[in-house]
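Supplementary Note 3. Input sequence used for the single-chain structure prediction.
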Amino acid sequence: MEHVADVRVIYGDTDAAGIAYYGNYLRWFEVGRAELMRRKGFSYRDVMERDGVLLPVIEAGASYHASARYDDVLRIHAEIRAVAGVRLIFGYRIEREDGTLLVTGHTVHAFTRLNGKPVRPPAAFRELSGSD
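The predicted structure, written as discrete structure tokens, is reproduced below.
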């Protein structure tokens, strides 16, 4: 997995005990996904505007290993696991700056037209997986 971004846990991301709310990890997955796509030469805006394709999340999963706390710096790692059929699968690992594993997870996205109908991935995505 590629280290793609660092984020700091802000006070608004935590509960009264200063522990990050579990749902925020999905937001941090999105940060990792967007940064990884930029490194691969894509952006959501380009895919939507140029190709007329959306990438809605159709599945998400996370396994929590330790808690992030207020003011921790988190290292987000992401990878594209597969482009299969009309699906794009990402994997994630988030660690505290000291290397402590906090969460691992994945998201599955569908390639769809703006009207929600599934569509074959644009060529650039198919090339990522060698499934042209």
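Helices lie at 24-39, 44-51, 123-129. Residues 2-129 form a domain with the Thiol Ester Dehydrase; Chain A fold (CATH 3.10.129.10).
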